[in-house]
User: What shape does this take?
Amino acid sequence: MDREEIFRDIEHTLGLVPSFFKTIPDSSLELEWELFKRIELDESPIPNKYRELIGLAIAGVTKCHYCAFFHTEAARLFGASEEEIENAVHYAKAVAGWSTYVNGLQVDLEQFKDEVLRICEYVHANQPVSR
Assistant: This one.
């Protein structure tokens, strides 16, 4: 497809051609649009709402204002509640914090893996785990 055909498809799908798509060079525009549609709009093993909450969590950790806004609104579009949005961001904060801590202290990776597997085994055998 040429640039104008791609822009027509974008407008048909999104209602307008966002300016960030207008900055993409001709050589990769079609590929980027197809990838965007597949990742943002198509069904996948992870429902759209949860993918957007994951995207929001990543955006929070990477501190990208554009992505944080996009994924927050997309999560809402796909039915995420304010409580789910807050929880996703809080979870990302906790993961990033623990990552900083164990990496900064250089905790032994093999010991860490062994302990995590033992914990999972114990919890699986002794406590109800919601899925």
Summary: The chain has two domains: 1-42, 45-131.
